[in-house]
Specification:
Chain A: GO terms for molecular function: transcription coactivator activity. The structure holds two protein chains of two kinds. Chain A is built from five helices and no strands. Chain A has helices at residues 3-13, 15-30, 32-46, 52-66, 69-98. By secondary structure, chain B is mainly α. Classes of the chains: A mainly alpha, B mainly alpha.
């Protein structure tokens, strides 16, 4: 099962939106989102005419390096269980179709 | 599903989620930065540009701290008084100001006051003698 296919199925089932909200909620709760906003503000302050692509790349690099490890573990667990549930449902539907 | 492929899938989904979140954050801040540089079509001023200098609020008004509060000369004693304490100082700055606050201060001539007091005592005595 390819990543693209899995992502498409997550979008269609609405699980991707739900996971996105869970991630945002957790990021706000642990304060990491505030730190990222402060960093973005400092980048803008340093150069008010910064290009969007440069800003995005700098923020993504900082986010990838500083992402909380505890949150990473919990999110991966959540995503795994969602994918397994999705594949179980798909398998069940396939079996029903065959019968 | 193979555990390794499931872990790999989960990681790529998390990466996608994080990229989306960062993209939204970058869009939000980039938009506000660009808007702050533009002139507002309604009021024809850069009303979205906020001041970020120290000692000033976002509207470029000076923040009053104990070290920045203005001082004024007291008209009575001539001392430098902080604006927040000026009213309280004026109340206590008695006898050195032109303003009159009590009847006792109004009669600055002591002989007149004494005459008045003597007159009051005489009147009281006369009343007690008559009863």
């Amino acid at each position: 099962m390819s990543t693209q296919k899995v992502t498409e199925q997550l979008y269609q089932s609405g699980d991707f939106e739900r996971l996105s909200q869970v991630l945002e909620q957790n990021l706000e709760q642990c304060g990491w989102a505030t730190e990222m906003r402060d960093y973005a503000r400092s980048l803008i302050k340093a150069d008010n005419t910064i290009h969007f692509q440069d800003l995005y790349e700098k923020l993504l690099k900082a986010a990838t390096e500083s992402f909380p490890s505890s949150l990473k573990v919990s999110m991966l667990q959540e995503i795994k269980s969602t994918i397994l549930k999705m594949t179980d449902v798909a398998q069940h539907q396939q079996d029903q179709g065959q019968n | 599903m193979h555990p390794q492929s499931l872990a790999g899938l989960s990681c790529s989904v998390l990466e996608q989620l994080l990229c989306d979140w960062v993209h939204e954050l970058a869009q939000q801040f980039h938009r506000s930065a660009k808007l702050s540089l533009q002139e507002c079509p309604a009021c024809k001023s850069r009303c979205r540009q906020f001041c970020s200098r120290s000692g000033f609020d976002i509207f470029a008004n000076s923040i009053q701290t104990p070290s920045t509060v203005p001082y004024y000369n007291c008209e009575g004693c001539g001392r430098q008084i902080a604006a927040s304490r000026y009213a309280a100082h004026l109340e206590k700055c008695k006898g050195r100001t032109h303003s009159v606050t009590s009847f006792t201060e109004y009669n600055e001539d002591d002989s007149e006051q004494e005459t008045f007091q003597r007159h009051k005592r005489k009147k009281r005595k006369a009343n007690t003698n008559s009863t």
